């Protein structure tokens, strides 16, 4: 039986956080704001704009509060920020971010390397974050990204049963949305399909985001596999930048422009102007000279079958 695809998907741009944190270049705040203006004009409506971590650890994201404040002036724009702990959550609440993403590594080894906490200690921190958010009367949503859900460069295999245990645990702790992330690029479409189907049995629509890296060339295939299970929200990154410091040779997130092309080719609406997105990529290449950008569609452009006006294409 053929899957029934949605008419529309929601794409969150993660370049200003996941992308920039992984490269040496520090993008000036003015250029970040220009990126946001262009993204909004191109039709993007959710952007992960930064992370509330100490500036000494991540100077690339030291201006997150300022970037959030500007993003909130853009009509209809949803601001998302990464917070590794309660202190970061307090800053996100004070900044009035729309959503805060708490990363939880399913891999015990990765969790200790990345956050210096065990997965269950992170679950306990999520409970404290929920209590803090509620006490503040804040509307900032709490989302948890279950990273290394498909495997880990440090630990190796990650048991699906452990993913499901922690998925239930973070929901019990107060998370309102949950996503599965192929942090180090180990996933294949069968793994993606099976894990998302199992996760939706536990979380229902609260499991609503796929985060994939293209480290081994399967990023778009994994997006498609998640789409088949009913997922309609995906993370992607302009120019395919970003990645995990514990994933040697990683090429970055799935490229936003490639995901937009995939959806457009399948007649699934993203609300994003492809030509405007490509202009943004060209600008990003100038800003990040010396850094590697990735993706495929920028090399060849749209096929002629997608260049014709919609009415003409239907008539044909």
Structure overview:
- This protein is of the alpha/beta class and 316 residues long.
- Residues 309-316 have low confidence and may be disordered.
- Strands 1-8-7-6-5-4-3-2 form an 8-stranded parallel β-sheet.
- The two termini are 27 Å apart.
- Strand 2, helix 3 (64-71) and strand 3 (78-82) form a beta-alpha-beta unit.
- It has helices at 15-19, 29-41, 64-71, 86-95, 108-115, 119-136, 160-173, 189-203, 219-228, 256-265, 274-287, 297-300, 310-315, and strands at 10-13, 46-51, 78-82, 99-105, 141-147, 177-182, 207-212, 233-236.
- The chain is built from 13 helices and 8 strands.
- The longest helix has 18 residues, at 119-136.
- It is globular and about 50 Å long.
Strands of the largest sheet, in order across it?
Answer: 1-8-7-6-5-4-3-2
Described by the principal axes of the CA atoms, the overall outline is: globular
Q: Detail the poorly predicted runs.
A: 309-316
At the first level of CATH, what is the class?
Alpha Beta
Keywords:
316 residues, alpha/beta, TIM Barrel, 43% helix
Summarize the structure.
Helix 4 packs parallel to helix 6. The protein has 13 helices and 8 strands.
Topology:
Blueprint: E1 10-13, H1 15-19, H2 29-41, E2 46-51, H3 64-71, E3 78-82, H4 86-95, E4 99-105, H5 108-115, H6 119-136, E5 141-147, H7 160-173, E6 177-182, H8 189-203, E7 207-212, H9 219-228, E8 233-236, H10 256-265, H11 274-287, H12 297-300, H13 310-315
Parallel strand pairs: 1-8, 2-3, 3-4, 4-5, 5-6, 6-7, 7-8
Helix pairs in contact: 2-3, 2-11, 4-6, 6-7, 7-8, 8-9, 10-11
